[in-house]
User: What shape does this take?
Amino acid sequence: MGGWAARRIEGHAARRDWFSYQARPDGSALARWRGLSDFTISADGATVRWRRLPRVTDEAYRGYLLPQVLSFSLLARGQEPLHGSAVAVDGGVIAFLGDCGLGKSSLTAAFLQAGYPLVTDDLLVLVRRGVGYTVEPGMPSIKLDPSVARRLLGALPGGPRMAPGAAKRIVSLPPSMSVRNPLPLRALYVLTRGRSVRITPVTQAAAFLEILRDAFNTVLLDSARLASQFRFARRLASTVRVRRLAYPRRLAGLERVREAVLEDLPPSRDPRHAGDPGQPLACSSVGT
Assistant: This one.
């Protein structure tokens, strides 16, 4: 979930040392982060109850635990969240997908540095609208290593750790650096390592596989969820522009990567994509 695959065990439960998930006979579920918080999600995903322990900061709760548990709620309501980050460009959204450690949040921070507001970090929620998709805004925060945050967003104060023992910090953003309204999705960029900056088209079949690979929640693997996931991936792959973005993982080179992405975007023909890319739009949470 969110970049890691929890081990499935007997009784429809998934566990790691610090996380456990248990489906209940009435259709509800219990998700527990040991020492942090317990969540109970109703069968229809509409209600989430929790027990929060004192050691959890407000920022870590909203920026880390809440998006994790919302993935279960979204799946119960028929929505398939992806593990990605996104920014607003010319009134539309470009999103970055890829495994943990490939630099989704760092590249997103490079766009923030240039005045492009955050749409979401980590939990990417797409809603079908006509022939395309819109992206729901997430929390007004981004998870970054301290060195990346200082280099790209130096004026912002550092926040708490994403989780106990984690290197990344949760950096809260001011209203001018995030959006609060859903915006149309323009393109998906699948990140990979490379010796130079290179952007190439992705076939529909390859895009289908990448979308499956970047599911946010890898705990729920029952047949109904998998069928829904395949339908979603097929529709998205056949609808949205998907590109592969290869680049070296060097902090000093992120500006060049950002410019390559902006150059790759086709001119917008949708009137909804008009406006100042850095114009502040207010923020709201996803899945509520």
